């Protein structure tokens, strides 16, 4: 008779519940969140573990890899699916969550989440770090503009870029208030350092793109640069995970939600499930194709036809979905971009 277990993971301790095939609770405990301690507790109480489940979360990737290396049959459960069951319990505790997860694992009523390769997580971490630094740069620039308005100085737009205009303001328009100069110089120095770090990451991303055959392949598509290509590769990780390329759009949350009940049947907005960063990258690529002549004239004409019916924003979302499907098909077949095949 098979034995099932579940882990409710937190930073310090992990609640474990073990149940039999008929749902009877066999053992429960709280152990430190350490792969060795968790694996030792499980193997000491059941030699025929069939499945061990845990929810997706910040520690899920680390624990899955560590427990898999220790021969524990661990699976990762989509937290959204688990939440639908666990919220039915009147009291939320780690112990109750572990019990509920154990019953989900026993019945098989869950959606397993694929843990990606180490390379995919490293590349995604690099892209996330760059996105964070870009956000910091934008925040610093907006802060400089906003503070200057307090003193009646309009930053505006000047030929030569942000740095040249800022230096002009410090040397001329703030000359009458020298006590403000150190404040704005500190913000400009911080912006300069952030830009240097962004440039370093951009150089690293370009170097990886030159070495990575799949990234180079995806970059043959119009509007797709190294960042978008790396984001798609990191999000999918393995082209074989989807049996059909059309599933790629739904995986990235670019397909409409569907609601049907009785006589009611309607489509909603796109679900926005999955990897938000990759979805934004594809939307930016679609926007570049739609607004600029970057190649892919048939893709642009197709999107323009949709825009005439539903508006440009929905057309760009549709084009982003088409790009996701097209990039996955290119990867799966190892074929560079061919516009005729893309529009087939």
Automatic annotation (TrEMBL):
Residues 6-150 form the Transposase IS110-like N-terminal domain. Pfam families: DEDD_Tnp_IS110, Transposase_20. Residues 216-290 form the Transposase IS116/IS110/IS902 C-terminal domain. It comes from the Bacteria. PANTHER family: PUTATIVE TRANSPOSASE FOR IS117-RELATED, TRANSPOSASE FOR INSERTION SEQUENCE ELEMENT IS1111A. NCBIfam families: transpos_IS110 (NF033542). This is IS110 family transposase. It comes from Paracoccus benzoatiresistens.
């Amino acid at each position: 008779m098979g034995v099932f277990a579940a882990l409710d993971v937190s930073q310090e301790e992990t609640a474990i519940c073990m149940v039999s095939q008929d749902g009877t609770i066999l053992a429960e405990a709280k152990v430190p969140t350490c792969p060795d301690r968790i694996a030792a507790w499980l193997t000491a109480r059941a030699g025929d573990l069939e499945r061990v489940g845990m929810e997706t979360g910040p520690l899920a990737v680390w624990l899955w890899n560590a427990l898999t290396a220790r021969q524990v049959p661990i699976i990762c459960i989509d937290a959204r699916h688990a939440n639908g069951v666990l919220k039915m319990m009147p009291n939320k505790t780690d112990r109750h969550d572990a019990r509920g997860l154990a019953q989900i694992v026993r019945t098989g009523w869950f959606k397993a989440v694929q843990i990606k390769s180490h390379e995919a997580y490293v590349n995604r971490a690099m892209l996330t770090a760059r996105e964070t630094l870009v956000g910091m740069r934008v925040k610093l620039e907006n802060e400089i503009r906003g503070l200057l308005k307090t003193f009646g100085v309009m930053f505006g737009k000047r030929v030569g870029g942000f740095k040249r205009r800022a230096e002009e303001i410090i040397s001329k328009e703030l000359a009458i208030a020298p006590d403000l100069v150190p404040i704005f110089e500190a913000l400009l120095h911080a912006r300069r350092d952030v830009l240097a770090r962004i440039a370093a990451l951009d150089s690293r991303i370009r170097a990886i793109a030159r070495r990575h055959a799949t990234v180079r392949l995806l970059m043959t598509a119009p509007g797709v640069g190294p960042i978008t290509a790396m984001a798609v590769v990191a999000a999918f990780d393995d082209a074989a995970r989807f049996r059909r390329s059309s599933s790629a759009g739904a995986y990235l949350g670019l397909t409409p939600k569907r609601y049907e009940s009785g006589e009611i049947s309607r489509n909603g907005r796109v679900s926005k499930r999955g990897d938000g960063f990759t979805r934004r990258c594809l939307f930016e690529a679609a926007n570049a194709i739609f607004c600029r002549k970057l190649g892919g004239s048939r893709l642009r004409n197709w999107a323009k036809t949709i825009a005439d019916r539903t508006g440009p924003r929905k057309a760009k979302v549709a084009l982003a979905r088409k790009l996701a499907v097209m990039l996955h098909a290119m990867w799966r077949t190892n074929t560079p971009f061919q516009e005729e095949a893309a529009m087939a």
